[in-house]
Amino acid sequence: MKILVINTGSSSIKYQLFDMEHEKALAIGIAEKIGEVTGRLTHKVPVDDGMPRKRVMDGPIKDHREGMNRISALLVDQVLGVIRDKSEIAAVGHRVVHGGEAFQAPTIINEAVIAEIKKNTPLAPLHNPPNLVGIEVARAIFPGIPQVAVFDTAFHHTMPRHAYLYALPYDLYQKEGVRRYGFHGTSHAYVSERAAEHLGKGLDSLNMITIHLGNGASIAAIEKGRCIDTSMGMTPLEGLVMGTRAGDLDPALPFFLSRHLKMNLDQIDGLLNKQSGLKGICGTNDMREVLERRKSGDDRAEAALDIYTYRIKKYIGAYIAVLGIVDAIVFTGGIGENAPIVRELSCHGLTGFGISIDREKNNAVSYDIREISAADSNIKVLVVPTNEELKIAQETKKVVTF
């Protein structure tokens, strides 16, 4: 069975085609700068031994339909194609960021599902509309092939009421859906499963704290395979410090910005989502640059790293309290997998909780799942590379073969 996974942004389409018999990516690519003067389509075919075969095509991509048509053509291309005909694709799995309360599991896409995703647009105005564009285009280009929506929020629907409700008038929850939803669900689900496999135990016997650190960042408390709390809220703004997002802050701050600095709602929204986080503190949202500048004695970069890791540490402590017993802490995402100093500082001083990192293991370069905890650490600390696209393909397969 071959499954195409699509992640559509406002000006991009990321895609992977999987052979699900071996859970192997046959093709990986991205169409970028769709609708702009300059565009780029990058298509890669992984090779077992050696560098992947690759084609980069520069030039305007008028819209998402044109982008998807080009991707479809590349998949059957005589040189870099991996299938003979697009009819070999058994299903298309779509990443959809916000499923609201309506979707607690992956689901086959039909008109009713599309209507419900549209209803959730106010909860994710930057994400759901482009996700819907991807669905519309894929349904047109791959007619008759099952399309499946896999929601970032679905994994977190096991949170108890006391974790997902805000202390606001209850009508706001009942009528407007104001509550904590959480995001990065496919990543948290995937790495928790992989961690359990690595530890040789059933997922339903383990308590874990999973930490997804990329430009967006979130942390989840997982009790016996079920999420019971997570840092992101109704939107992806809440929680940890991120690349350009502020994370947790005083709820009265927007009023101060409005009244004192005369900022309007759009300006405040842009400030908190696009100009804050690491970028707000030291001018860049790239953790690699933050770390390089810190090495050279940049005080603002030092502050950015300290604030970033301090917030992670606070959440680790909170989720230890929530879970009671913790078997493993899992780092993942681009920063979580590749920045040893972030992992070290996030766990520094937590020996009282039974958490201790082995510096040599932590600093060793590896791209595989690995333990970085010290021999005397009561709680295992793992680095688990995430694969959200594979998880979407796995969930899609479950739905279409049910």
From TrEMBL:
This protein's record includes keyword Metal-binding: yes
GO MF annotation list: acetate kinase activity; ATP binding; magnesium ion binding
Predominant place of localization: cytoplasm
GO cellular component, one term: cytoplasm
Co-factor: note: Mg(2+). Can also accept Mn(2+).
Reactions catalysed: acetate + ATP = acetyl phosphate + ADP
Pathway: Metabolic intermediate biosynthesis; acetyl-CoA biosynthesis; acetyl-CoA from acetate: step 1/2
Alphabetized Pfam families for the sequence: Acetate_kinase (PF00871)
NCBIfam families in the cross-refs: ackA (TIGR00016)
Role noted for this protein: Catalyzes the formation of acetyl phosphate from acetate and ATP. Can also catalyze the reverse reaction.
Name of the protein in question: Acetate kinase
Native organism: uncultured Desulfobacterium sp
